[in-house]
Amino acid sequence: MKELLLIVIAYFIGSIPTALIVSKTFFGVDIRDYGSGNMGATNTFRILGSKYGSIVMICDILKGMIAVTLFNFIPSHQHNETAATNLMVGLGLSAVLGHVFPIFAQFRGGKGVATLFGMMLGLQPVIAASCIGVFLLVLFFTRYVSLSSILAGLSLPICVLWIWNDDVIIYRIFAVLVAAMILLTHQKNIKKILNGNESRVPIFKYRDRRRARRNNQSAI
User: Fold this and answer.
1) How far apart are CA 36 and CA 146, in angstroms?
2) How many domains does the chain have?
3) Closest listed residue to residue 150, CA positions, set 108, 192, 121, 107
């Protein structure tokens, strides 16, 4: 009974509409009316810029991390690794479900990538940090948040199955399912990237402006 209550609480945590709160508070708009229509960090980066996109991403990651830590409210699970792991995965997935289908935002949420990585930070910090490293590296070179999320998601099973070779079966299954889910939810983004239509986020706008000015000056 306690486990079920905690899973419901995790869902409500995941349902906190971070992007919607930020867009309405600072811009007076519904982020879902613009761009891809998703209420997530990727669309926030694209529409509101890197500052607010970063705020939303951090908050969405925290939702997954906080949800996983709820297992501490059942002391008996702390001495049973299998029970604790199963509950933590259930709590994290419930938070992701809340982010994708938020009760506080008419069940129109985001794709859940940031909350998934927050969940992984609570479960396997080293592996999650590696995936986040892949995300930041790809973002630095490409400025595609979607591509960064896809490659970070694909790096998860690589880390779990081969690099760290985690022998906990639920982690191995979870890692493969996460990679598959991210590929499925980003099919439109993949097509846009291949067609050259995907939007880049302006994380280096000042550098790009200086570079454009230098190019213009050299062309004169």
Assistant:
1) 11
2) 1
3) 192
Closest CA to 62 of 125, 121, 7, 15: 121
Helix (H) / strand (E) element for 94: namely helix 81-100
Residue 67: which H helix or E strand, with range?
A: helix 50-69
Q: Which residue type, as a one-letter code, is found at position 61?
A: I
Amino acid 1 reads M
Domain containing 100 equals 2-207
Kindly report, residue by residue over 174-214, the tens digit of the pLDDT: 889 889 988 988 898 899 999 988 888 766 555 555 555 55
The pair of structure tokens assigned to 195 is 């067609």
In a domain, 105, yes or no: yes
Query: How many whole angstroms separate alpha carbon 28 and alpha carbon 148?
Result: 28
| pLDDT for 66 beyond 60 | yes
Inside any domain, residue 98: yes
User: What are the pLDDT digits (tens) for 130-165?
Assistant: 998 999 999 888 888 889 999 999 999 999 898 888
Judged on CB neighbours under 10 Å (0-12, 13-18, 19+), 31 is buried
Task: Give the DSSP letter string of 105-132.
Answer: GTT-----HHHHHHHHHHH-HHHHHHHH
* Token representation of residue 167: 């022998």
Q: Which of 2, 115, 138 is nearest to 60 (CA)?
A: 115
